[in-house]
Amino acid sequence: MKKFVRFTLIFVMLLLAASWLSSVAYGQTNDGIEQSGIFIEAAPSEAAPSATFYGRAIGGVTAGDLFYIDAVDSQADMSLDLYITNPDELIHYFRYLILKITVYIEDAEGQWQRVTSQNGTAMPDTYITLQNSPVSFVMPGMARYKVTVESGCYHSLPFHANSGMISPSFYLNVQPL
User: What global pTM score does this model have?
Assistant: First the structure.
């Protein structure tokens, strides 16, 4: 019995030592877009989605904001392209990484509402993975938007002791149409 308890304690300590807490990161936006009255800002780290990635695990990603877009001064429709910029690094750590991406629009009262299609129905679910980056949306101008990770899941591969922190990095490209 003593050996079993000792083995269990050692196993739990190794498991805790091998885990990394990592927030789902975000990247930069394009700078030239400000000339057309569209401003993009990366969400602060406390609003970003997060997950605990550790070796040989299946887990979930909590919801969070990636980018804020202010297009109130632009009448033009715009194309939003969201990229994962480091899949070449992540592929060594994940069997899969699937993130549900949602776009919200700010209403007149300052509340965020999920963007709907022109007939009032919800837009279809959009997922970004290590294999299908980028995902794209077309949005009308004269509004404020936020791009979020609504949910997600992953299956991680075994990590090595020198793996360090891992997390996806995002890049948002917005172009007036």
Answer: 0.80
The single-letter DSSP state of residue 9 is H
Residue 176: per-residue pLDDT: 85
3-state secondary structure of 104: strand
Q: Contact at 8 Å (CB) between 27 and 64?
A: no
- Report the C-alpha gap between 139 and 76 in whole angstroms: 9
Dihedral, CA of residue 74, residue 132, residue 165 and residue 52, to nearest 10: 90
Question: DSSP label at 11?
Answer: H
In the chain, where do the E strands start and end? Answer: 19-23, 39-42, 50-54, 58-61, 64-70, 78-84, 94-106, 112-114, 126-129, 135-139, 144-156, 170-176
Residue 135: phi and psi, rounded to 5, are: -110, 145
